[in-house]
Structure formats: structure tokens, C-alpha cells
Design goal:
- It contains eight helices and 13 strands.
- The protein is α+β, with helices and mostly antiparallel strands and about 260 residues long.
- It has a single domain (about 5-190), classed as Arylamine N-acetyltransferase fold.
- The strands form two sheets. Strands 5-4-3-2-9-8-7-6 form an eight-stranded antiparallel sheet.
- Helix 4 packs across helix 5.
- The longest helix is centred in the N-terminal third of the chain and has 14 residues, at about 65-75.
- The chain starts with a helix and ends in a 7-residue tail after the last helix.
Length: about 260
């Protein structure tokens, strides 16, 4: 059982917040990070481990951790939550399938069914959107939509030149926890997983600002961006611990 009061304190809320407010508070408070897999520490999805790491210790995590924690909070607030596994498409040819290594939530709450996701790093939704294909949704200047591609629902976002890009696609069929655990094990331990071989730490602010530290492009960089502009700076490896501490609020010793 999640300590709901402790979780709400962690994200700066109290009482019984609505779905949109809770989702935005989580995204803008708990950083996205892969520091454990990068250090060779497998990610545990046990409820006690998630609460200890992301709530008590003030850490962040990646999609499986983030969305399972949100799921527990929503269920404690009375929502019905389903889990879907998605294939990341961003930066890849969608005709070449990738493993289903991203967790997405379907939330039956407040007279509707919602697509919720606090775990896609800098590109994640700030607030839930209606589940399924539909219109365009603007969130603090960032634009999202969902389109159909065969049996998959594909979340898209607009990049600065105005083009829509695919973020990920998923079949909206609920999966059991064992499938999520298996995908998480692959993601946090496989020697070719980018979460094992690389570094990614990111945060989103409620006003639409994003920042990230990553070497996934082949170069270690720190990026600050808004829907209108982006600033990218090269980072030396010995600068990483202090940057992680000062900009993301994480312990420098974790790097």
C-alpha cells in the first residue's frame, strides 16, 4: 500500500487532487533518470522499493518506476488504471519494430478514459489526454496528438519546425504486471540497453521549460529548451556530478 500522504507531499500537493493536477505535479517534481542501471544496479519494481527511492529518498526514475508510482497513487484515489506496453519510435524507422520498453497508463477516472504518462523523459505529457485518436492538445506550449497506425495508437509531438514526430506506439490492450517486470528487466540490465550504456537525466518545469543531461546523441550535452527555443552545451565528464546535484537535485555521489 502506497503512503499516499507522503507521495502527495513529495509532489507538493495535499488532499485529493484531480487527475490533471496530480499528473502535472508529478512530472514537474520527480526527475527522470537512469543512474542505477548506468551503475549496474537493476531497477526493482517492488512497491516498497519504488516508494523508498522516488518518495522517501527523493530520487527519480525511468518510465516503469515513474508510471507504476503514479498508478499506485491514482488507485489510492479511487481510479481504475490499466497498463500498456509501448514501442519507442522517436528517432527510429517505425517499420523496424523495437522492443516494448515503455510503460503507458490508461486511467478510468473523472467521467472518461485517459492516456497518462509521466515517464517519457523530456517528451512526456504534462497532463493526461483522452485515450485514443483525437484532436491536438497544447500543454504549456508543447503540442501532442494521437493517431492510429494499424492496431497501434501513436503519440506524436510537434518539433520546432512544425512537423509532427512519432514518440511511441502501443496497442491499447492491458498487460499483466509480469510483462512489465520482464520489459523492465531487459531495459535495466541488457548490455545493449541505452539505459545501461548511456546517461539520461531530465526534468520538466510546470511552465513548459525542460532540461536534460544526456550522452545518447554520442556527445555529452546539457540542454535547456522551451517550445520556442533550445540551448545545447557540451559537458565535460568531470562536470556531471555537480550538474546532477545543482540542476536536478540528485546526489552527486550517484554518478
Amino acid at each position: 500500500m502506497l503512503d499516499l500522504e507522503a507521495y502527495l507531499t513529495r509532489v507538493g500537493l495535499r488532499g485529493r487532487p484531480d487527475l490533471a493536477k496530480l499528473h502535472r505535479a508529478h512530472v514537474s517534481t520527480i526527475p527522470f533518470e537512469n543512474l542505477d542501471p548506468r551503475r549496474g544496479i537493476p531497477v526493482s519494481l517492488e512497491p516498497e522499493a519504488l516508494e523508498r527511492k522516488l518518495v522517501t529518498e527523493g530520487r527519480g526514475g525511468y518510465c516503469f518506476e515513474q508510471n507504476l508510482l503514479l498508478k499506485a497513487a491514482l488507485e489510492a484515489l479511487g481510479a481504475d488504471v490499466a497498463m500498456y506496453l509501448a514501442r519507442v519510435r522517436m528517432g527510429r524507422d517505425p517499420s523496424i519494430p523495437r522492443p516494448r520498453t515503455h510503460l503507458v497508463l490508461g486511467v478510468a477516472h473523472e467521467s472518461g478514459r485517459w492516456h497518462a504518462d509521466v515517464g517519457f523523459g523530456n517528451g512526456t505529457l504534462l497532463e493526461p489526454i483522452p485515450l485514443g485518436p483525437g484532436g491536438e492538445y497544447e500543454q504549456s506550449g508543447w503540442r501532442f496528438r494521437v493517431v492510429e497506425d494499424g492496431p497501434e495508437l501513436v503519440l506524436q509531438s510537434v518539433i520546432r519546425d512544425g512537423d509532427w514526430i512519432d514518440l511511441y506506439g502501443f496497442v491499447p490492450e492491458p498487460v499483466p504486471l509480469i510483462d512489465v517486470v520482464t520489459s523492465n528487466w531487459y531495459t535495466s540490465t541488457h548490455p545493449r540497453s541505452p539505459f545501461v550504456t548511456g546517461l539520461i537525466v531530465s526534468s520538466q518545469l510546470g511552465d513548459g521549460e525542460r532540461m536534460s543531461l544526456s550522452d545518447w546523441s554520442g556527445e555529452l550535452t546539457f540542454t535547456e529548451e522551451t517550445p520556442d527555443k533550445s540551448t545545447v552545451c557540451a559537458v565535460a565528464p568531470d562536470e556531471v556530478p555537480q550538474l546532477v546535484a545543482n540542476r536536478f537535485g540528485l546526489e552527486a555521489s550517484l554518478v
